[in-house]
Each structure stands twice: as structure tokens, then as C-alpha cells.
Amino acid sequence: MDSTDSDRVVRLAVAEALARVTDEDSLGLGESDAVQRLGADLRAVLCRALDNRVPLTTPDFVDLCRELGLNREAFDLLGHYLMTALLAHHVGPDALIRVGVLLGTVGRYLPGARPTAPRNGRPMPRRRDVRADNSVVGRYRRAKLPEHLPNPPSWTCTGCGREWPCATKQSQLLAEFGGARTALAVYLGSCLVAAAQDLPTVPLPRVRLRFLGWLPRARI
Q1: What span, in angstroms and rounded, lies between the C-alpha atoms of 197 and 100?
Q2: Residue 151 contacts residue 145 (beta carbons within 8 Å)
Q3: Which pTM value belongs to this model?
Q4: Does the N-terminal peptide bond of residue 55 adopt cis geometry, omega within 30 degrees of 0?
């Protein structure tokens, strides 16, 4: 991907992701100036992530996210929308891995969600975090692990103990998602991002091959 295409993809992906979280008020930024600052810095770090000749550095961006009061949960949601937008632009698995590592690195330095303030001296009942329940890892941690599902942080298969997705799960995923290749790629891309954070010693090309390399290529 040349620099012109990269810049265009970054602009479109960031605009789409920010539009979704702004519409939902998921980030709690409110002021348009804050959204513009976040968008400008996000575009800058994404351009570096898509250029594999440039080292991934995030301190300035982390400082901005902290200044704007973003917590880890809100940033994860923004990252989800951003990865979904990038997948739609076919940036390639290597770029997705670099962006996933970037998002994971930033998220680790952000605070968790603020505890709910007490009411009349009594703590507020804790609301269930639906986004956490529906996240890639959350779906598999809140109940008994069925067979052939990922087991973070080792990312082995709960059914056979092999690296996930194992051959059996690959067949199951193709059947479960049918012809919806984009939806399957989004799901596996989310898993890839989480696994890249949990398995930092595994080379990125191997992570890419493991999660995305087995997908059937689209027929021309």
C-alpha cells in the first residue's frame, strides 16, 4: 500500500470509527474540539502503523488519551470500530497485526472504568458490562468452556489442546459463518488482536498465519 492509499484509508477509517462512537457517546468527550484532537493524533499513529518501515511509538498518543479522560473500555470499543473499518478497506493481515499491537499497547496504559459513585452512602448496584460480555475473550470466560474454543492467554484449543483455531474449529467457523467472509475476518481479526497482546514472544508473521492464513481466498 503506497502512502497515498494509506492516507486515504486512514482518513476514512478514523472518520467512520469516530462517527460511531460519537453517535453513541461512548467516549464521553462531548466537545467537538476533543474529538478533532483525538482524530488528528489517531490518524498520525495509524499512518505509522500501516508503514512497516516506521517504529511503533505511542507515548504522545497515550498522554492525549489520558488527558481526554479515555478509559480502557471506551478505547477498546473505539479500537473495535477502527479494526472493522480497516478490514473493509482490505489493508492486509500484516497491517492489521501492527494496528492491533498499537491499540493493545495504548490500551494497557489507560485506566479502567471509573467505579460508580455511591448514592446516599450506599454503593450503586453494579451494572453488567454488556460490551465486555460480548467481547472476544469475554464470551468465553463467563461460562464453562465448550469444546474447540480459544483459551486465553495461551490461546490453545479447549477441545484438543492444539493452537487455536485448530483444524476442527476452522471447519466449524466456515460452516457457522457460511459465505460471510467479511464477518468471519472481523471475528478472527478481533481474536488476533487479543492474542497478539497475550503472546508477545510469538513472531507477528506467525500470529497472522495462524489466525488469518487459513482463510479461503475470494474467487476472482
Answers
A1: 8
A2: yes
A3: 0.55
A4: no
